[in-house]
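Archive entry. Fields below.
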Amino acid sequence: MMNGTWKVDARDGKLAMAHIYVAFVALALGGLAGLLQVLVRSGKFELPAGISYYTILTTHGVLLGLVLTTFFIIGFQFAAVSRTAGTLSDRVRFWGWVGFWLMTIGTAITAFYILIGEASVLYTFYAPLQAHAGFYIGLTLVVVGSWVSGFAMFAHYAKWKKAHPGQVSPLLTFMSVVNMVLWLVCSLGVAATVLFQLIPWSLGYVDRINVLVSRTLFWYFGHPLVYFWLLPAYMIWYAIIPKIIGGKMFSDSLARMSFILFLIFSIPVGFHHQLVEPGIDPAWKYLQVVLTFMVVIPSLMTAFSMFATFEMYGRSKGATGLFGWLRKLPWNDARFFAPFIGMLFFIPAGAGGLVNASHQLNQVVHNTIWVTGHFHLTLATTVVLTFFGAAYWLIPHLTGRVMTKAMNRLAIIQTIVWSIGMIFMSSAMHFAGLLGAPRRSAFSTYGDAPQALEWIPYQIAQAVGGTILFIGIILVLIIVTNLAFFAPKGETEFPVAEVAEQAERTPLVFENWKLWIGIAVVLILIAYTVPFIDMIQNAPPGSKGFKLW
Amino acid sequence: MKTQLNTNTPKTKVEKEPALKGTLASVLFLGFFLIFTWVSVYFLFLNRL
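PREDICTED_STRUCTURE:
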């Protein structure tokens, strides 16, 4: 099953590639919007033709935060389950296509309403900002489409389990299932606010909206959303990178354990995005902060596992000294280099995350551009560089091509360009945030306030970094286009790692879904039931919709 | 008389643990960095009280 010569079936490959094409089109458009944003915020540039800053901000957030990620992840996971649990059945593939088209049509509807300036509500929705109903309906289709694809993956997993009773499922399939369970459970929150609050309110069926309930339901979804992005990167780190470097996985059990911990602890934590929100009792915020810090455990387990994989490999190649193993790693292979740099960026990203989640420290950085800097490290560097690294073998594998040395070199350059751009942009965002610069705001000197004038050099650094990052986007689009359409024909491996000989056997308990989903649901109920009842029973009159753009 | 060693007892297979000194140093550095960042922003918070 774990044979390196296994190939994803061409029909499954087509389904995966369809998702990947949409993901990279979203990267091109969303990246352009990002470039415009940093230029506007430098104070040296104004958008032409009356285009609003908040329109391009929403375009950037929705296309990169929601569309690029969800499409790439679902495409990658379909390829991964097909590779490790066998070719998809016609029925599973059919539902995969249904999911794809629902998501694509939904994206098109949403993008239309954003671009005509009817939905500049940012990707976090933020009632009482009110978009055209088409924005919410389009996003509903994206979420429903992703559910259809998730159930298609569950069906494929169930078929494998039935055919292999008592056996541990292939790791990548197991991980894909965990990620889709996480997605399903958390996206119920956003579905609830969209279907029961935002759509009736935007259509005028109800006048007012309970803002706190809407934001709580959004962040119930919004934080695990980060883990929905991150877990596929972890799949690549745990189960694929060891094979790329020529080594073995440190432990299959540790990888599964960390995924289960993410499933349990990444959902009942949304309040750490609402720490300055009135209307939520501090005791419940405290509980969710504690649960948030529990997520540190699987993150540190992952860090340990990755270091151990690299060191074991380096030492097997004769490395000596404390860090001699680092020299043995394949630095000139973009499939390794891009994700590895992503891992390095996860260190400051994680440190910033601890600050965000701590109640007092959150008051220093809340709603400042520090937070934007933070998730440009987590999502836009750690996750995205890992996805780029995966694209460098996944796309040629699926299209029957091979990456040339020239493209590999360009991919290494792309990673370096990305890193330089992000160091400029994200560091500037972090420092400006500590000085109080707000996020989600166009350029303003706030009546030449001395504090606001302090931010300007950092905003110029953001523009420099953002421009370098846009060059990085152009480079990756050149590589992806080459790999999809122009690279020489040939066979590229879909790497899947084997477990090290000394690793313990994987216990079956990790696939006791009733147990793990049960624990997750109990924790969610404990963390949310009482404060949620409080929000409804003691609600203010609610707010009318605002269109401030 | 010499003690007769029982040569029939099966030897326990001792598996060698991989040497992971570099990993230990790396995770310690990681932990230090996390704590350093947290404490830095905490002092900034205290400073602004």
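CURATOR_NOTE: The mean pLDDT of chain B is 80.
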